[in-house]
Amino acid sequence: MKSIIRRLTLTAAALAALTAVPAFAQNKVVLGVAIPAATHGFTGGIVFWANQAKKDLEKANPGLKVIVKTAANAAEQANQLQDLMAVSKINTLVVFPFESAALTKPVTEVHNKGVYVTVVDRGLTDTSAQDAYVSGDNTAFGKIPAEYLAKVMNGKGNLVAMRGIATTLDNERMDAFNGVLKNYPEMKLLDAKYANWNRDDAFKVMQDYLTRFKEIDAVWAADDDMAVGVLKAIDQSKRTDIKIVFGGAGAKGMIKTLIDGKDPRIQANVSYSPKFMYDAIKLTAEARLKGEKLPATYIIPSVLITKENASKFYFPDSPF
Amino acid sequence: MPPAPTSAPVSGPSPGQTPGQSPAGASRLAQLVQQIGPLLGLVLLCIAGTVLNPDFATTDNILNVLTRTAFIGIIAVGMTFVIISGGIDLSVGSMAALIAGSMILLMNTISGSLGSPYLVVGIGIAFALLLGALFGLAHGLLITKGRIEPFIVTLGTLGIFRAYLTYFANGGAITLDNAVSDIYSPVYYGSVLGLPIPIWVLLLMAVAGGVVLNRTRYGRYVQAIGSNEQVARYAAVEVDRIKILTYVVLGLCVGVATVLYVPRLGSASPTTGLLWELEAIASVIVGGTALKGGEGKIAGTVIGAILLSVISNILNLTSIISVYLNAAVQGVVIIIVAFLQRSRR
User: Fold this and answer.
1) What pLDDT is attached to residue B29?
2) Segment B264-292 mean pLDDT
3) pLDDT at B214
4) pLDDT tens for each residue of B32-54
5) Taking CB atoms and an 8 Å limit, are B55 and A193 in contact across chains?
6) Does domain A138-270 have CATH number 3.40.50.2300?
7) Quick one: average pLDDT of B82-103?
8) Which 3-state string (H, E, C) describes B256-300?
9) In this predicted structure, what is the pLDDT of residue A21?
10) d(Cα B143, Cα B151) in Å, to the nearest integer?
11) Residue A111 in contact with residue A101, Cβ under 8 Å?
12) Which portions of chain A are predicted below pLDDT 70?
């Protein structure tokens, strides 16, 4: 199997080399983009923004070619990296690694052949394989809602929280949230259970919180999908003690609710948009076209979204 | 405590002429243990829940738990038929997701041109049931006429169904129009005589399933095929037709579950119905049906489904155990209950 794939890749590489070499101009940038396939809202957004970047950037820069590959798992992504090298002859790579550890070696191979590498979101275990790192800000993702809630609740009240899936990313967010709450001894976090970034699980967990706690002032749903389930569960119980439901990531449905002021419990959100994929590709492509380098680490800040600035975060065409 | 009523009407001992059953008498005690094993587990769990948090035993909480059990419970009723006949269906979660997505897309499309939102919802429901039956028929045909193992057929469609939902949803969520959603939401949130509608539907499906399985010729054929397919064939049972029907029945059950699911959140996303197949299969097996087929009890299945959702309910109502260990608690309880209802080799 492996040898067949290798032979096919070699043949394809040979063909590509024969035909492509003459057209290969000096300062042309061939940018490969390797990202996970759209399996849920957030990765759906990643794919959307990668394709959007391809469209916009190729139009604006005739010397640029962008090739987008989506992978369903780490092994497929590793194969795609080989193909991008051998067949597409990329000289720049923007990769959103499917898994940090599993993709470190394949990305290193690409980097060793002189390709400029930008890594997005999930860092590699060996950072020497990357020229630049672009990511969202998970600490701010937990800190901003905690600070916002402390402010509007005047530093006291009962909170419940939802967690995503047990990952380092989720821990960073939760730790940052708890870190802020430490300064407000009268803000009580009653419990934080996993709801897997999933509407249905959040609905069930919220129903049970409502059974268990008679006074809840605010919910940190920690994700806009989970916020959907939380709101439905509160509606069903007809409880009126919950004043605020704080989601996160800025999904278009929630941002729309915020802009329209349709639900008094939705007052604010925190950005963690898959649009950072677009920014990463754009920054990399523009730097490479000018022959410049990117800063080694580029954290795209998470910011508080309120009614005033919400329209800047509303992307009706994105699936997320 | 509400779980009791389902067990009474449907779990009468099967008549002696049931094919493939060992002689009466010897297995009577074993049968009794097997029958009350899951119930015993459920009762113990409920006592534990009440001790840990008195709010567990409130009517509201019990109705919440039973309502959310309805989806898995209804699917598990259909799954009982498939498993008793010696088959398996791994695709039900993905199937539910795809039916939910397709039905929402259809309702959104026709709600513009059709005046009455009630008609829109009616058409949506009919479409969901039809789609479920068709998917089941496809499974049945591939398995019997195509002679492919049910594990492989439904593993294949598990991927196909979910991939198509993700494709239709563009990786995001498919959301039902508000006007239709308002008309439709009582199907999940409404009550009749104090019981939420999903609980009624689960009860009806369970009673109907029990009657069909134990009181009709079709039900006896299903058990006979699962016991020994060759013997059933020699006894002039139309094995293929009966088997295809079990998958159609399951598809219909998935359709019914989806009809109840969609009004809850008014949306479908690639995470809809994730791992429902395992929950449904676990409910069936915990309820005392043999995975190798041949025999089983609908009442046990329903109790199994309730048991699974009670576990996570209790875990949510307490915080004595680290959240990281929730899945371990579930695993332990499932194994203990399976141990209680183990009976014959």
Assistant:
1) 64
2) 89
3) 93
4) 666 677 888 899 889 999 999 88
5) no
6) yes
7) 96
8) HHHHHHHHHHCEECCCCCCCHHHHHHHHHHHCCCCCCCCCCCHHH
9) 41
10) 9
11) no
12) 1-27, 39-40
Chain A residues bordering chain B (beta-carbon distance below 8 Å)? 38-41, 43-45, 47-48, 163, 166, 191-194, 196-200, 203-205, 207-209, 211-212, 225, 228-229, 232, 236-237, 253, 318-320
CB contact under 8 A, B173 and A41: yes
Contact A117, A110 (CB under 8 A): yes
Annotated domain spans of chain A: 2-136+274-300, 138-270
pLDDT attached to residue A5: 55
Q: Give the mutation candidate from A198, A208, A252 for the B interface (greatest B CB count, under 10 A).
A: A208
- For residue B345, pLDDT over 60 is answered with no
Cα–Cα distance list, A84 to A9, A12, A13, A26, A32 (Å): 10, 11, 10, 19, 6
CATH code given to domain A2-136+274-300: 3.40.50.2300
* Complex ipTM value: 0.73
CB contact at 8 A, A176 and B287: no
In percent, the amount of chain B with pLDDT more than 70 equals 88
CB–CB contact B171 A196 (8 Å): no
Strands A268-270, B174-175: pairing kind? unpaired
Under 8 Å between Cβ of B49 and B43: no
Domains annotated for chain B, with CATH where assigned, are 4-8+26-340 (1.10.3470)
Yes or no, beta carbons of B61 and A211 under 8 Å apart = yes
Apex B194 CA angle, B191 and B198, nearest 5: 45
